[in-house]
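User: Just a sanity check before I run the rest of the batch. Below are the structure tokens for the first item. I only need the designed sequence back.
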């Protein structure tokens, strides 16, 4: 079964927590607590042997492994293993409807998230300000993402036409494809793929389901069909002169319009315009390549034109795109009256400590006073006596 669209839930591994220990346990000096290991990240890798997304079950949930906790005597925790998901060339990765990556090059990688940040042990936290810290950092918690993967076929040529134009017949004659053929609308409901037989080098050709008016707005299989054009080099328009409802010129206008409406960049793709079923016509259209797929008439002319075009086109319309990173150190401030509730990664870094309660509180307030969160609160006109909530910690604000 051909699969070109799936939804996944993927999660990073949690970072391991740091340890609190001292070489001199009685005086609590010479800190020796090890740091945690980083949580496993989420990585997508292109595998050009894959031809769709059927190797991944939609609505699945995958998790990277957690980092190990630090221990006494400078023992750091082990890093968690990354979650690696292989995808075919031509896969787009989206989160919250935002495209984060467009994957093309074989073995290229996109790191969605590097994984939960490890918590530092008290050895790593020792400083001139706090030479013997009685606290350590907790590892960053697991983060989950709802990911949408959309695959567009990686082909050299796409055959596009209205339903029953003869696309499946044509691809069976040009290639080793076993496309099913029937004399009714929407014969093809999934793409058929093959390699052109007469070429000295492999030319991958794809027959897409029939395109109808309104496809760019989602009518029929419209948007699913049009998405599979984005990674091809050449589009063969296959026109049907036997249609009584739409002339050849009307069919051509509809195909042009729907492609442009879906993606204006599609106008840059090389087009070859072919009139099929000439065995049913008394005259030819000189401005098009005239063929009969059913009777194999003039197919060599079409193949020659396809080969010549492929030789002159080295690059596809789209190439690798990767958003640099997701923002991991953001924060939100929700104000209700004189109460300011703060959340986000910055807050977790401030309060994510364990150990001696007095030492932990001192460190939290030091981090708070030196963080960008304080600037955010001031921008929202916080005043003396207002309440600040940092996760489970609540206190009055005073300058």
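Assistant: Here's the designed sequence for the first item:
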């Amino acid at each position: 079964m051909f699969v070109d669209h799936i939804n996944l839930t993927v999660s990073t591994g949690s970072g391991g927590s740091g340890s609190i220990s001292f070489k001199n346990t009685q005086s609590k000096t010479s800190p020796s607590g090890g740091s945690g290991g980083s949580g496993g990240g989420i990585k997508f890798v292109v595998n050009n042997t894959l031809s769709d997304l059927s190797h991944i079950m939609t609505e699945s949930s995958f998790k990277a492994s957690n980092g190990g906790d630090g221990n006494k005597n400078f023992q750091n925790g082990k890093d968690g293993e990354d979650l690696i998901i292989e995808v075919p060339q031509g896969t787009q990765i989206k989160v919250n409807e935002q495209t984060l990556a467009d994957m093309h090059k074989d073995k290229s990688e996109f790191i969605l998230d590097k994984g939960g940040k490890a918590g530092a042990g008290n050895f790593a936290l020792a400083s001139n300000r706090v030479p013997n810290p009685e606290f350590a950092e907790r590892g960053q918690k697991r983060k989950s993402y709802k990911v949408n993967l959309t695959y567009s076929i990686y082909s050299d040529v796409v055959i596009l036409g209205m339903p029953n134009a003869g696309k499946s017949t044509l691809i069976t004659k040009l290639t080793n494809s076993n496309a099913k053929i029937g004399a009714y609308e929407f014969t093809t409901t999934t793409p058929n793929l093959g390699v052109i037989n007469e070429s000295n080098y492999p030319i991958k050709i794809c027959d897409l389901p029939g395109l109808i008016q309104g496809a760019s707005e989602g009518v029929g299989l419209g948007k699913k069909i049009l998405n599979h054009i984005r990674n091809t080099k050449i589009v063969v328009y296959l026109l049907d002169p036997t249609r009584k409802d739409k002339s050849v010129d009307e069919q051509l206008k509809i195909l042009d319009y729907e492609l442009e409406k879906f993606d204006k960049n599609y106008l840059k793709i090389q087009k070859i315009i072919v009139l099929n079923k000439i065995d049913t016509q008394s005259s030819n259209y000189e401005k098009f390549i005239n063929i009969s797929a059913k009777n194999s008439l003039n197919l060599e002319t079409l193949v020659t034109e396809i080969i010549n075009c492929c030789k002159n086109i080295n690059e596809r319309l789209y190439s690798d795109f990767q958003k640099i990173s997701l923002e991991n150190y953001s924060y939100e401030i929700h104000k209700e009256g004189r109460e300011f509730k703060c959340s986000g990664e910055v807050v977790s870094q401030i309060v994510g400590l364990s150990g001696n309660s007095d030492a932990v509180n001192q460190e939290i307030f030091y981090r708070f006073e030196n963080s960008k969160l304080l600037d955010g609160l001031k921008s929202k006109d916080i005043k003396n006596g207002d309440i600040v909530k940092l996760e489970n910690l609540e206190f009055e604000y005073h300058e």
